[in-house]
Design goal:
Ferritin; mainly alpha; elongated
């Protein structure tokens, strides 16, 4: 049976995952409206991943005899200053998510909840990848600049990304 404190923290993480998904959906829309088709697709795929992450926790809670809660989420910003701003904000979101996952791991250890700690290891690994992804995109923007053919090529490259989900050749549940 799932410890009530851990259950509460996991439910908060579900909310955060869906809020991140909404941020990425908003970023996708901004990119699309501003002619960045690659980033629009990239952020749409990112949104799908975040929602999958939330549902993975949702099912884990219920499978451990807890009670997963469908969260109400706050609306994200809808306007961004630039293409670069999308990725700077994304890195901030991922760093915050890393902090929350680390706090969850600490709480699971403190509660001696080995199953939850093991479950969360996947999220720890995922956050390393997510932060690296956004850092590498920002590194490319630093090299290419915010205008011109390099930005166009980067946008095209980003549009090739597909969400790392079951059925897409990605992770398994």
């Amino acid at each position: 049976m799932l410890n009530k404190q851990i259950e509460s923290l996991l439910n908060k993480q579900i909310k955060h995952e869906f809020e991140a998904g909404n941020w990425y959906l908003s970023m996708s829309s901004w990119a699309d409206v501003n002619g960045f088709e690659g980033a629009a697709r990239f952020f749409l795929e990112q949104s799908k991943e975040e929602n999958f992450h939330g549902m993975k926790i949702f099912h884990f809670i219920n499978n451990r005899e807890g009670h997963a809660k469908a969260p109400s989420v706050t609306g994200p910003d809808t306007e961004f200053n630039s293409y670069r701003h999308l990725f700077e904000r994304s890195l901030e979101l991922e760093k915050e998510n890393t902090r929350l996952i680390d706090d969850l791991v600490d709480a699971a250890r403190e509660a001696n909840d080995h199953a939850t700690e093991q479950f969360l290891q996947w999220y720890v690994d995922e956050q390393v990848e997510e932060e690296e992804l956004f850092r590498s995109i920002l590194d490319k923007l630093n090299i290419l600049g915010d205008k011109g053919p390099g930005l166009y090529m980067l946008d095209q490259e980003l549009g090739q990304r597909t969400a790392d989900l079951p059925g897409n050749g990605g992770e398994t549940e």
